[in-house]
Amino acid sequence: MTSPADTEEAATKPNYLKMLLADPLAFIAAIVLLVVAFIAVFGRQLAGPTATQGDLALSRLAPFSTDHGWQYFLGGDLLGRSLLGRLMVATQTTMSVSVPVVLISLVIGASVGMWAGYHRGWRETLAMRIADVVLSFPSLLMAVVVLYIFSPSIASIIAILAVTRIPVYLRTARAESAELQSRVFVDAARTFGTPSGAIIRRHIFPIVLPTLLTVATLDFCYVMLAESSLSFLGIGVQPPDVSWGLMVAQGRDQLRTQWWLSVLPGLAIVITTVSANLLASWVRLATDPGQRWRLTTPRRRRRRRAVPVLEA
Amino acid sequence: MLTFLRRRALTSLLPLLAVVLGVFVLARLTGNPAALYLPENATAEAREQFSAANGFDKPIWAQLIDYFAGVARLDFGTSLRTGEDAATMALRAFPATLQLAVVTMVLAIAVAIVVGCWAALRPNGLADRVSGMLSMTAASVPDFWLAILGIWVFAIILGVLPTSGVDAGGASWVLPIAVLMVRPAGVLTQVVRGAMISALGSPYVKVARAKGASEGRVVARHALKNAAPPALTVAGDLAVGLINGAVVVESIFGWPGIGKLMIDAILQRDFAVLQAAVALTAISIFVLNIAIDIGYALLDARVRNKAGAAA
């Protein structure tokens, strides 16, 4: 089957920025994630004192009015702290859990997976068995047990979530590397006496990377949801720290009178995870040479070309 | 077939043992497990007494043997809160979760088959794109927030459904099931769609069409039957994942199931109950995995015959 990939666009090096601009949904998603990242870094300073020291006069302030400054645009909580300010501070906590978890599990899972897939044999069997065991048990339940035994702190949340996510990368990296290690270019490198570590680093890793990045973007959603679920249940991030999931839980008792206290933090979670999902599907298309034409070929021309492919 | 099942049972047994052993190791990592069982303000004598009574002063290997013997007899000790047998409490809570999970999975599978087939009939058509968007959103929405949103809209604003509990009969089932089934339904729809698209493009469907089978018969008898095995595998994983959701949903809606029992045990630091609940969950996952393997073998002639040949 021939795809329109073998045309002039695919021959040149892909221009990722141009492809991102061509896909409005992915572009918006990328902007949203950049804003979230910015708030995660500078949110505490931007929010100012209204996030931590409440003004009791503004207690239970209704949202969507700027009479008391932009910080109170999303209303105030029981102690008169600004909801928007608290959301911004919580962004930092949520990200300081999610990002390390994704990075740690990505690095460990990918390294072990590529190593196991390259060497095959007992190393592969052992790694896969352990991954199966971890994956076969509900991750939240595992976190629940561990967080009971080691009292919940940001470090223990990161550790247990990373352990439950390592198998995801391990499986992906192993499958790709097991397939790659039988290819001719790897054989060639082996014939020249390249040590296995260098083959994995220089010949296997660059090919596996795009897949791993897609998985990581998707997994980022999963980790964010897991952290917020744990915090919501009261065994994740503990007060006085604040995370989005914890804010939903804290606002729950006021649902009847101040709905925004728990609905809006949840909305922040949804907006971020939907953006990460959209960006993940864009990354999957953009890094796959066989699919890239979907992003580089304008829609009108695409339909004309796509027809014969579908008919075939 | 039996050899196949025996081999699968052994592979599924591994995670079960790992979980039971893992809880033991983790509990001992923190030093004296008496600290886990007793309240934080217990006196030193109370701790020593408790250690001696439960054999925590014996050597570690003797403790391990005692522990496994206890697990085999479903003996996890007594609850600190109620003084009741921990395993009895877990077994009592189990049916509530099972009912919730079964109804959720049946509904999710039904939705997935209908929507997935509909989307697969015209790939990239309107139904396909809408269901694709919905599936993606379903994977991104936190279930606890969906539950809160449901309570806010249907219980507080509209007042048509109860906020929590199981006393209102059928109405109290609506929100927990709706929240729980969102994710499995979304994922399964995409799996059914993918499997159906490849099944509908295969030669045997062309033959069926050429012989004049109606479209309904082609979809239901020829394509769907062959699209079922991959969907079944994913449904099994989702059913295991449903336990994650059950913990959240049960504690929000006050559903007297095993998820709520676990969270309550954690918040009240009742380790024996938590341990019993976790072990019971691990055992049911083990049983579920075997059931899925049997179903898989029954559905897929290739697995069935290969297993027969290996025997």
Which short descriptors sum up this protein?
heterodimer; A: 312 residues; mainly alpha; MetI-like fold; 13 helices; 71% helix; 0% strand; disordered N terminus; disordered C terminus; B: 311 residues
Please give a structural write-up.
The complex is a heterodimer of chains A (312) and B (311). In chain A, helix 5 crosses helix 7, helix 6 packs across helix 7 and helix 7 packs antiparallel against helix 9. Chain A has 312 residues and is mainly α. The longest helix of chain A has 38 residues. Helices cover 71% and strands 0% of the residues of chain A. Chain A has 13 helices and no strands. Chain A has one domain: Orthogonal Bundle (MetI-like fold). The N terminus and C terminus of chain A are likely disordered. The N and C termini of chain B lie close together (7 Å). Chain B is mainly α and 311 residues long. In chain B, 37% of the residues are buried. Chain B has one domain: MetI-like (MetI-like fold). Helix content of chain B is 79%, strand content 0%. Chains A and B meet through helix 5, helix 6, helix 9, helix 10 and helix 11 of A and helix 1, helix 6, helix 7, helix 10 and helix 11 of B.
Give me the CATH architecture of chain A, please: Orthogonal Bundle
What is the CATH first-level class name of chain B? Mainly Alpha
- Quick check: average pLDDT of chain A? 80
**Count of DSSP-assigned helices of chain A:** 13
Shape of chain B: flat
Q: How does the major sheet of chain B shape up? A: none
Rounded to an integer, what's the Rg of chain B over CA atoms?
24 Å
- Rounded average pLDDT of chain B: 80
Tell me the CATH topology of chain A: MetI-like fold
Assign the structural class of chain B, choosing from mainly alpha, mainly beta, alpha/beta, alpha+beta, or little secondary structure: mainly alpha
Number of DSSP-assigned strands of chain B: 0
CATH domain class name of chain A: Mainly Alpha
Question: In angstroms, what is the radius of gyration of chain A?
Answer: 23 Å
**Helix and strand succession of chain A?**
HHHHHHHHHHHHH
Work out the helicity level of chain A: over 70%
Task: Tell me the major beta sheet of chain A.
Answer: none
**In terms of per-residue confidence, which ranges of chain B show pLDDT below 50 for 5 or more consecutive residues?**
none
